Amino acid sequence: ELVDFIVFYNRIIDRFELTKEQNVTFERKLPKHVAFVEIDEDKLTQVLDNIISNAMKYSPEGGKITFTIKEQEQQLIVSVADNGVGIPKENISKIFDRFYRVDKARTRRLGGTGLGLAIAKEMVEAHGGRIWASSKEGKGTKISFTLPYIQSEEDDWV
Ligand code: ATP
Ligand code: MG
């Protein structure tokens, strides 16, 4: 479906904001205008659910999660940043692998299977985008992905 991603993203953030039981602040840095992309809404909902639940899960009490959309010529760059535990540099390339979890003891306590980001990666790539993480141990983590604007046939007049 052709979707205004700003509205779509806001709706998902709203759902987390309304149901959260943790003391975490949300900040949105989103464009004020529309940004239409061709997406499968169910799949992108799952991508964002997986990324945002991680941000919540690994955030400290009183933490802050920042939601951003930036625009580049041919794509949107969507990101979710937290100021939680972070991910050690040597593990960062593996977090999108199936069943990979950084700290066995810590993650056992927090629960999960290690599939969330692997699924997110698969779905972002199915939309022609890419996904990556930047993180500093003890400072926080930012997960970003791109969504290309797919040129439709009707746009050929430009
Ligand atoms: P699941 O999502 O299946 O419930 P999970 O959250 O452990 O389990 P992923 O979402 O795939 O699995 O994440 C993989 C690992 O990456 C996590 O176990 C955690 O170690 C690390 N990780 C992911 N997001 C964050 C984050 N925001 N802050 C710190 N570590 C993270
Ligand atoms: Mg997860």
TrEMBL record:
Domain Histidine kinase: 1-151
Subcellular location: Cell membrane
Tree of life domain: Bacteria
Protein name in the entry: histidine kinase
Organism of this sequence: Niallia taxi
Gene name, Swiss-Prot/TrEMBL: walK
